[in-house]
Amino acid sequence: MAEERTSNYIKLCDEWAEKFLQMEKKELMNRLPELKEEDGYLKITHFGVPFGIRLDNGRIDRLDGRAKANATEMLNIYTLLGYVKENAFFMDKWVPFADLRNARPFGPAYKIGVTDVFAATFSGHAKELENAFEKLNGLRLPLGDVGYQIDAFSCEPMQFYFWDCDDEFEAQANILFDYSATDFNHVESAVSTAEMGVRRLAELAGLPLKGKAFGMS
């Protein structure tokens, strides 16, 4: 089953690579000024990691030399390019996932696969989480035991909040999106973007993910 799922994700990435080749690149760069054309790529940063979409074949490379781009990263980038609306703009209106447009059907899976994983992974590890946010040049926020704003993409900042466990309560976590998130990307991609953020934080903290994460390799 896992092999079949991975194969489907690879096929989907191949389909998106073909779609990218048909996209008007100047229009994309107008809609997403963070895109930079250099060295045969359109370059973009996703949770602090540089990526490039190849102009010759539409495939995505991770450009820091540390690993290959995984399916979650690639699909987050492809869907951003494919779904960003003309004149999309940051609204500075922060909402939980369930309050994004058309998000409610995905709410239960989002809780189990993202915020529950976020809380479980960093339970008892608030300092490691704080250090991970600092490595991403996060903006500290005055809420929660650990609260930071970081960029999924330059056009899509996100706010992460964490309350550590104590003698009475388990660890709790929440992630807020700007209401414009679904103007830049598909609502299902908000799930995988948040999931990628938790994975990146865990990676930087040197901690294994806990809970029912549903990431794509």
UniProtKB/TrEMBL annotation:
Pfam families: DUF3786 (PF12654). The lineage of its organism: Bacteria, Bacillati, Bacillota, Clostridia, Lachnospirales. Residues 37-199 form the DUF3786 domain. It comes from the Bacteria. This is DUF3786 domain-containing protein. It comes from Blautia obeum.
